[in-house]
Amino acid sequence: MIKNTTYKSENVREQILKLSNQNDKKICIFGAGTYGKNLYYKLNSNLVDIYCFLDNDMKKWGYMFNNVTCISSKELQMYKNDVLIIVAIQNPTEILEQLNNEGFPYVITKQIVDPLLLNPALNNLDTSLKIDYSSEKTQCLVGELNKIISDIYKYYNSKL
Q: In 24-135, which residue ranges form alpha helices assigned H by DSSP?
């Protein structure tokens, strides 16, 4: 059973992995649609690297989003013990069952992860600035800014 607990002294990646009782797993997002992309932006802005996207839609396989490739769950099979999959779709029940049947042991949902990504200070700022995160232009801009911030963080971390 996954606990719905937050660990304030740790970074978001560590908190997510603890929710699934795991450590040092690659993180994959199931769902390369709007929910998955929004989750990607939120995780990326918290300096959480995403290993890949998964999707059942064959048309999305091979598609790259911010240098992260979308693949099928069958393609990920050989690494199933090394990844944590976050299902990022509105109604995850069928996908959870599918991934369970395919033998993926480490799966949680976006709904469980969302509370970790809430930041009241930012939410108030978003409201006062009337930022519309659903617009494609805003998502593109946020994605580019998050990538720059992540690259800067990685650069300085490598110098330590």
A: 34-45, 73-76, 93-101, 110-117, 120-129
Half-sphere exposure of 70 (CA within 13 A, CB side): 20
What per-residue string of b and e applies to 3-35 under the rule 16 or more CB within 10 Å gives b?
Answer: eeeeeeeeebbebbbbbbebeebebbbbbbeeb
The 10s digit of each residue's pLDDT in 52-92 is 999 999 999 998 888 899 999 999 999 998 899 999 998 99
What are the distances in angstroms from CA 86 to CA 16, 38, 144? 9, 12, 22
Residue pair 98/89 in contact (Cβ under 8 Å)? The answer is no
Exposure on the CB side of residue 103, measured as CA atoms within 13 A: 8
Are 126 and 118 in contact by the 8 Å Cβ rule? The answer is: no
Q: How many angstroms from the chain centroid is the CA of residue 23? A: 16
